[in-house]
Amino acid sequence: MTSGVREKKIKTNGICLNVAEKGDDGGPLVLLLHGFPETWFSWRHQIDFLSSHGYHVVAPDLRGYADSDSPPSHESYTVSHLVADVIGLLDHYGTAQAFVAGHDWGAIIGWSLCLFRPDRVKGFISLSVPYSPRDPNLKPSDLFKSFGDGLYITQFQEPGRAEAAFAKHGCLTVMKKFLLTTRTDFLVAPPDTEIIDDLEVPSTLPDWITEEEIQVYAEKFEKSGFTGPLNYYRAMDLNWEILAPWQGYKIVVPTKFIAGDKDIGNEGAHGTIKYVKGEVFKSIVPNLEVVVIEDGHHFIQQEKPERVSEEILSFFNKLRNTAE
Fold it and tell me: Which of 8, 27, 128, 199 has the most CB atoms around it within 10 Å of its CB?
């Protein structure tokens, strides 16, 4: 387990976030933003690695998660709220510009931070979720309907539905079903089936995670529940409205995108890897590097910790040396 990590509560944007940090306070700040359904603990390997190379590493439990505050309404989970939380953390540490890495929903927050406040980001690393141009004619919920009711995001929209489905399994099983999935589709369940019922638990754990580590997550979700994390999905149409003024805007921050070749959503003609290697992605994120990790799945920074840590360090070191 991660040792030497300091945890504390920080007031930001009207709420309190629990933050894990490690490293020299005088070192360059690296902010690590986790995804669904995780906590700061998902970055445990990178926290140790980056702090040992001179960085001051800060990894919050995002709003709605674990030991951070969890506002009840989904309207409190828009990208405006989430980016403001991050800005508040940077202000707390007196950091004009930080290095930022985000995975899954943390990546979406990172992209939005680069969109809203590029002046606060020295460099950004996105894991698993690329930046997608906003469709001015199609709300996310309408797009998701094209996948049918089995799509996990659609099932997450209705308050209470996913919470009830998860409760039948218990938090430890829920965590195993998500963290250990090797599916490469967009997570679509068969008709009349909840996605959590359709996901499988492998007979043996992979070598990159232990039962004790999965239990760390389960214990946090047993206390906090899943409504806060699910509210991120329930605010997606609100995000579409909020992002309208940035229609057609490019991400100008230096960016590296990292994903496994077997990530969720990599199947088919519209898969993620084809998109990130194509011209559209490069046109809207012009200062871009793309790294695809062989035999990597969705929770890539835990599954391939050495490779991901080295990719993060090399990118931030390069930008750090350029700035100096």
Answer: 128
**Is-contact 193 150, C-beta < 8 A?**
yes
Rounded Cα gap, residues 13 and 119, in angstroms: 19
Q: Which residues contact 284 (CB under 8 A, 6 or more apart)?
A: 131, 133, 250, 251
Q: How many CB atoms lie within 10 A of CB 210?
A: 12
Burial annotation 230-253 (CB, 10 A radius, 16+ → b, else e): bbbbbbbbbbbebbeeeeeeebeb
d(CA 167, CA 139): 30
| Tokens 């669904």 sit on residue | 36
From CA 149, how far away is CA 194, in angstroms rounded? 9
Q: Give the residues across from 291 on adjacent strands.
A: 258
Burial class (CB in 10 A: 0-12, 13-18, 19+), 306: exposed
117 burial type by CB count under 10 A (0-12 exposed, 13-18 middle, 19+ buried): middle
Beta strand segments in the chain, E:
6-12, 15-22, 29-33, 56-60, 98-103, 121-127, 255-260, 288-293
- Compute CA distances 312 → 277, 293, 305, whole Å: 19, 13, 10
CA 169 to chain centre: 24
Other Cβ atoms less than 10 A from the Cβ of 289: the count is: 15
| Residues identified as active-site | 104, 233, 298
* Residues 129, 106: Cα–Cα separation, whole Å: 9
